[in-house]
Amino acid sequence: MLYRHYRVVPPLKVGGYARAVLESRLSHVMGIPRRIFYLLGMAALCCREFLRYNSRMPLSEFRRWRRGLREGMKKFFEIQ
User: Where are the domains positioned within the chain?
Assistant: First the structure.
């Protein structure tokens, strides 16, 4: 809907979509593999969908997502 009206999709909406897709697809995976697939899947799906709708990705988005991945990996290794 956002894309139809504004020809752009905000990063938070892309992240929410990616989260919903991954939650449904990874519902049967448990434990450590789930966390790894979730982190990598979020990065890949967010990049793909953001570029699909917005045609370019600002450097600020890469920085924000890199920070999120770093925090996710930090939490992953603290839990083990």
Answer: 2-79
The secondary structure of the chain in percent helix, strand, coil, rounded to multiples of 5, reads 80, 0, 20
Can you read off the two tokens belonging to residue 79? 């839990």
Token digits for 55?
A: 């045609």
pTM, 2 dp: 0.68
Q: How would you write 1-30 as a 3-class SS string?
A: CHHHHHCCCCHHHHHHHHHHHHHHHCCCCC
Q: pLDDT tens digit string along 1-36?
A: 777 777 778 877 888 888 899 888 888 877 777 788
Contact 49, 14 (CB under 8 A): yes
